[in-house]
Specification:
Blueprint (H helix, E strand, L loop, with lengths): L1 E6 L3 H11 L3 E6 L3 H10 L3 E3 L6 H7 L6 E4 L4 H13 L4 E5 L9 H8 L3 E3 L1 H15 L8 E3 L2 E7 L11 H7 L3 E8 L2 E3 L12 E7 H11 L10 E5 L3 H13 L2 E6 L2 H10 L3 E5 L5 H6 L7 E4 L4 H13 L4 E5 L6 H4 L6 E3 L1 H18 E7 L3 E7 L20 E8 L2 E3 L12 E7 L4 H7 L5
Parallel strand pairs: 1-2, 1-4, 2-3, 4-5, 5-6, 12-13, 12-15, 13-14, 15-16, 16-17
Antiparallel strand pairs: 7-8, 8-11, 9-10, 9-11, 18-19, 19-22, 20-21, 20-22
Helix pairs in contact: 1-14, 6-9, 6-14
Length: 451
């Protein structure tokens, strides 16, 4: 069992602890807030330490030299940098620091080297990267967004393959036994379909199978003249996410407008962004948005600090006919509402950052490679070893959570689209999909056997 320390049990620290506690990890939470620690201790199988981790005596008493990983995720960048550096100097093998301030962005490499920090995570940059990939790269797929050996995955609108609309997953398996519809993006929400789920007209489908067959499907469905059209973008909210995204899109060549309510923040944005129009006003002022040619936008991103406002504005933008509408939403309570709104993409920075941290902690020992799907689900490849509980057991007996799908198996030169009777063997390369909203479920599935 691997020892992991997490300093700071706010939203990020708690989310990572919850995911790791389901796997083969001994988690220690360190925080000055005794009430927060007690609350988590009642929910999770973790050890808690009510101390200030800036004191090196805390790490010495804990025996930090025996820990494999430490995550510093307090609310202060500087505190996280100091804590991670102290832990590393005292013998912790790998340290991760959460750093969010844009002022640090251009000197991440220097901070890592000077402070001996192995990895730096930035939730606002993480969500920015996923938004950018969706907007700029979604039309630029060549032979699938994920390839491994003879397995590939591609995405396409259901309307490009109309004979699939109305069919259940079971129907499709009969008609196309060598291809699996592994995920569906429906009204801005990614779902993992089950046997009786039907494909609907406006769904975006993710198909996985043998690379040759997926390549043929891709060529049949995607037209050669598909091009990226991202000339005009409007961002509501000039916080860190809005700042990072405007910077990347401006560098890409888009014409970007940011609407921000705080005048001092507007001055900061205008000073630190090149060729980006900064508008001082309320994002909820529809008259202002219409005056600024809202209807002519190719993409509209809502990234304020308020989930309700982001969703309301995203819905308004869709009603104005904007092609790509993306919303930043931090609370999972809105998932059911989101699925009814028709927004193109809804992202949770906490889920994305947690996924990035977990993949770093797991490293190449478990996960060979992984790719996020619309920032809401993850497709990954693992090599099955003798310690995993999934070896030698029919899939129907594995109690696979609803948030996880065993999508394909690469066995030697053979590609297998599994069913309930398929038995996973030692050294199989298994392609898994999991929803980030249930990120701990993948840890349960890969947890070692208990003798």
């Amino acid at each position: 069992m691997m020892d992991v320390a997490i300093v700071g049990c706010g939203k990020l620290g708690s989310k990572v602890a919850e995911a790791l506690a389901d796997g083969d990890y001994a988690v220690t939470l360190i925080d000055k807030n005794d009430a927060a620690l007690e609350h988590l201790a009642q929910q999770l199988d973790v050890m808690t330490v009510n101390e200030d981790a800036r004191r090196i005596s805390v790490f010495e008493e804990l025996g930090i030299e025996n820990f494999e990983f430490l995550l510093a995720s307090t609310g202060s960048d500087e505190t996280n940098i100091v804590i991670a550096s102290f832990a590393k100097k005292l013998g912790c093998k790998h340290v991760i620091a959460r750093v969010c301030d844009p002022e640090h962005m251009n000197q991440f490499d220097f901070i890592r080297e000077a402070m001996d920090i192995d990895s730096i995570v930035n939730p606002d940059m993480a969500i920015t990267v996923e938004i950018y990939k969706y907007l700029v790269e979604k039309y630029a797929l060549s032979n699938g967004i994920f390839t491994s050996g003879r397995i590939a995955l591609t995405e396409f609108p259901a309307e490009k393959y109309p004979s699939l609309i109305g069919l259940t997953m079971s129907d499709i398996r009969e008609a196309m036994p060598d291809i699996l519809i592994a995920a569906i993006s429906r009204a801005g929400k990614v779902i993992l379909p089950h046997k009786n789920d039907e494909i609907k007209e406006n769904d975006i489908l993710y198909a996985i199978g043998d690379k040759k067959m997926i390549s043929q499907l891709h060529k049949k469905i995607h037209e050669e003249d598909e091009t990226i059209r991202l000339n005009n973008v409007m961002i509501i909210g000039g916080g860190k996410t809005g700042f990072y995204l405007a910077q990347k899109l401006e560098e890409y060549g888009s014409s970007v407008k940011i609407v921000e309510r705080d005048l001092d923040r507007c001055r900061y944005l205008a000073t630190n962004l090149n060729n980006v129009m900064v508008l001082h006003g309320e994002g909820t002022d529809i008259d202002l948005l219409e005056e600024e040619n809202m209807d002519s936008m190719d993409a509209f991103i809502t990234a304020t600090g308020y989930d309700e406002e982001n969703l309301l504005l995203a819905l308004t933008a869709k009603k104005h006919g904007i092609n790509d509408v993306i919303s930043k939403v931090s609370h999972e309570n809105y998932q059911d509402l989101i699925s009814q709104m028709g927004v193109d993409m809804v992202l949770n920075p906490l889920d994305i950052t947690t996924s990035n941290i977990l993949r770093y902690i797991q490293g190449s020992n478990k996960i060979i490679s992984s790719v996020l799907i619309q920032g809401q689900a993850e497709i990954m490849e693992i090599i099955v070893n003798s310690k995993m509980q999934i070896v030698g057991v029919p899939i129907r007996s594995l109690d696979v959570p609803d948030d996880v799908l065993i999508a394909a198996i690469h066995r030697g030169n053979k590609v297998i689209i599994p069913d309930d009777d398929t038995v996973i063997r030692l050294n199989d390369r298994v392609i898994l999909l999991n929803l980030l909203s249930g990120i701990g479920d993948i840890e349960k599935l890969m947890k070692p056997k208990r003798n």
